[in-house]
Design brief:
The chain is mostly beta strands. Helix content is about 5%, strand content about 40%. It is globular, with a radius of gyration of 13 Å.
Amino acid sequence: MRRGQITRRGVLLAGKAERAVSFADRLRGLLGRPSLGPGAALLLERCGAVHTVGMRFALDLVFVDRAWRVTRIIRNVRPGRLMVCGGWHAARVMESEAGCLELSDMRVGDTLVWEERRTYDEKN
């Protein structure tokens, strides 16, 4: 699992971000986690649809295309959903605990930026 942060328009969106690239990391996703908390997100690569079966908390989902442009935003997806689809062009999805990231002014077409960190401090 890679660690970093996600920004939008030069403003920090998720300071504690994890990027699931491997099949095993993508398969596990957020299953079994009690919470993500404020400022945290999981970015699933090569992912155009997700489920919330077995989740312990509601999710905000931001689907992104290959150029990192937002294609769909879905807020407050409750646990137990079999499939939530991001649309034809979705190549990855950013998952966060519902209400824990400032998404109120995010729009389809906005561009996200991933910045990888070499070290990851749990407090930041």
